[in-house]
UniProtKB/TrEMBL annotation:
Annotated ranges, domain HTH marR-type: 12-146
UniProt KW Transcription regulation keyword: yes
Domain of life: Bacteria
Keyword hit for Coiled coil: no
Source species: Compostibacter hankyongensis
Protein name per its UniProtKB record: MarR family transcriptional regulator
Length: 149
């Protein structure tokens, strides 16, 4: 039996649970697809590659912040991507200690095979939702995140 939330706190808690469940299901399906297309990649590696497809040239700290991992974990993942010739580190001209991460040609080429099925999973998740519903949901989650500080 499902208990209906009675107040704003319980509704917010239920929203958090629903978002966690959706992320978990997407992660499971992405992991299953990765094993079909490229068993050498993990979900975490793909997460960083996907981020760089959208924002190539950001630094390790920015990557860590966006994927919600500590910098040492991201360093380990980036080292793994460098060994696979999927990304490269480039010194920042203003701060040599700060390395920016760029996709290599091989890393960009992965997009051709991986990105279409990732987008298909998100299309499946969207189902019959309209663009406005999704934009409203994004706005709602961003406001709640801002409320947390």
């Amino acid at each position: 039996m499902v208990v209906k939330p009675e107040n704003i706190q319980e509704l917010a808690l239920e929203l958090g649970r629903a978002m966690t469940e959706m992320k978990s299901r997407l992660r499971q399906q992405i992991r299953a697809k990765i094993s079909e297309y490229d068993p050498d990649l993990s979900f975490e590696l793909l997460e960083i590659i996907g981020l760089l497809w959208r924002q190539d040239g950001i630094n390790q700290q920015e990557i860590a912040d966006i994927v919600s991992k500590d910098k040492s974990s991201v360093t380990y993942l980036i080292n793994s991507l460098v060994k696979r010739d999927l990304v490269k580190r480039v010194e920042n001209k203003d701060d040599r200690r700060n390395k920016q991460i760029y996709l290599t040609p091989r890393g960009r080429k992965k997009r051709e095979t991986i990105f279409p099925w990732v987008l298909e999973l998100y299309r499946q998740a969207a189902g019959d939702l309209g663009e406005d519903e999704i934009r409203d949901a994004i706005s709602l989650v961003k406001k709640m995140t801002t409320n947390l500080g």
